[in-house]
Amino acid sequence: MINLTAKIKQMTLEQGKRILVTSDIHGYLSYFKKILEKACFSDNDILFIVGDMIEKGPENLKTLRYIMELSSQNGNVIPLIGNVDAYRLKLIYGLSEENVCGFYDYILNLRKWVGTSFYEELAAECGYKINKPEDILISKQAVLTHFEKEFNFLAGLPTIIETQNYIFVHGGLREKQVLNNSDKGVLELTKFDAFAEKTPYRFDKYVITGHWPVVLYGSKIPQMNPIINCDKKIISIDGGCGVKKDGQLNLLIIPDINCSVEEISYVSYDEIPTAYALENQSPSTDSVYISWLSREIRILEKDKEFSHIEHIKSGRKLHIPNSYLRNDTEAFDYTDYILPVNKGDCLSVLSQNSKGYIVKKSGVIGWYYGELS
Q1: How is domain 9-269 classified at the architecture level of CATH?
Q2: What is the mean pLDDT of the segment spanning 112-133?
Q3: Residues 307, 330: contact at Cβ < 8 Å?
């Protein structure tokens, strides 16, 4: 059994180097490569990967091996462990007759979502196909033996890294002072849901985290871009890559270890089809966002394309495309927000219906009712 313990690392970063930070790649290797290209990543930069490198994407094993290769070259690529990375290790080593059926159901759900799973990829390289729960147990020993190097790499990753002005951790700090977190478990530190809302602390240094998709911090207008919380000194960067169909991979750009927070920027990447707006559009002044945290609805009337619903959390009544209904009591992520759009804006087109388009513009999601090129 691999020993998963919290590892705290302290580093002094060289002045004059850019610090790039990404997280929650979730097996989207093409996104990762493209965003590094977009940021003109080079050996002169320092790149932190703040956990959740695998699972929920199409190329999990390739992503892990690519990160292993990068981190072995020049010492300027520094990965940390995420909760999904840790969970997967813990589960693979602990597979048994008691839990294998639940894990098989999880694999089937991932297969429906994205076509593959981390364990399926591992088993396939060892010559096994996963068609029933028993196949998992049959392949387990071969997987543990063949991927010892990869598993040791993940298990050896730091949980927290503290530098002069920034702290990196996938989920969040349970205690204000970094070293006071040393007795916390890996999963306590990598899975801290809604950290920026729930922590009672204002930190002495900016804490940069992934794990919690930034879109979940909003209640009115859904947006996927990094959030800098100056009150608590927390920077949240998870753009929902791999977990949201309208998600993106974000990469924070810190020009220098001693720069001001106002100098921090970011780039993002997704592969959603784009088009150009042919008309101007003014934004709406009030809107509803139905998120994973507030997905409960009541259907008032259902037509062929749209349904009139009541959103339970807000009490608001609105029309929603039927394609956004999860079932009769829940909805997928949806907003009735009307985006501000100028003619010529590039829009990522998420869906189309008889009323218009649901699009993403510069990381913000909403409706566009005009024509597209």
Answers
A1: 4-Layer Sandwich (3.60)
A2: 97
A3: no
